[in-house]
Design goal:
By secondary structure, the chain is an alpha+beta fold. About 40% of the residues lie in helices and about 25% in strands. Bound molecules: coenzyme A. The site of coenzyme A has 21 residues, from helix 1, strand 4, helix 5 and helix 6.
């Protein structure tokens, strides 16, 4: 598996991973409520993903030209996306992507990465060091970066 910076040409395949990850893995969050799920998916379009690739720091995990996962960091150190393809779950994809966005945050001189976790991923993020921290809004978890 290779983790690399996303390119605009990745947008359609990355978008497909985002949509399948949300639909198939995040049932704890959307509870199969069609209206809720469709609102969550509504901005996950190839055009939007292309613009996120251009405007943020997005990474993909790739193996044999298949995209296995997608993560992104904004310029303030907020992890805006971290989604694994259902068929690649529990193979270290999200861990590797989280390390890539944290490394990028450190390169940007950011001292704390932040995110809002799904219920689905909360255990994963807590194991990775994310916690409630003073000064963060309710629902936001942070991790001090070295
Ligand atoms: C839970 C999830 C994030 C784990 O990512 P992954 O790429 O499948 O798995 P990884 O191999 O990278 O990480 C494994 C870690 O996940 C955690 N984990 C294991 N089983 C888990 C479970 N059933 N639920 C939640 N976390 C779990 C553990 O910390 C594990 O680490 P360990 O192997 O050292 O014990 C992923 O499977 C998932 O459901 N993603 C859905 C999309 C999502 O919610 N993204 C977050 C947006 S904020």
């Amino acid at each position: 598996m290779l983790v690399r910076a996303a390119q605009p040409d990745d947008a359609t395949r990355a978008c497909d991973v985002l949509r399948r990850s949300i639909s198939q893995l995040c049932a704890l969050d959307h509870r199969n409520d069609e209206a809720f799920l469709s609102s969550w998916l509504s901005n996950k379009t190839p055009d939007n993903v292309r613009s996120w690739i251009e405007k943020s720091h997005m990474f993909v995990a790739e193996e044999n030209v298949q995209i296995l996962g997608v993560a992104a960091l904004d310029h303030s150190g907020f992890v805006t996306l971290n989604y694994v393809a259902p068929e690649a779950r529990f193979r270290g994809v999200s861990k590797a992507l989280l390390q890539a966005v944290e490394q990028k945050a450190m390169e940007l001189g950011i001292g704390m990465s932040r995110l809002q976790s799904t219920k689905t991923a909360e255990r994963f993020y807590r194991a990775a060091g994310y916690r409630e921290r003073s000064g963060l809004p309710e629902g936001t978890l942070g991790k001090m970066l070295k």
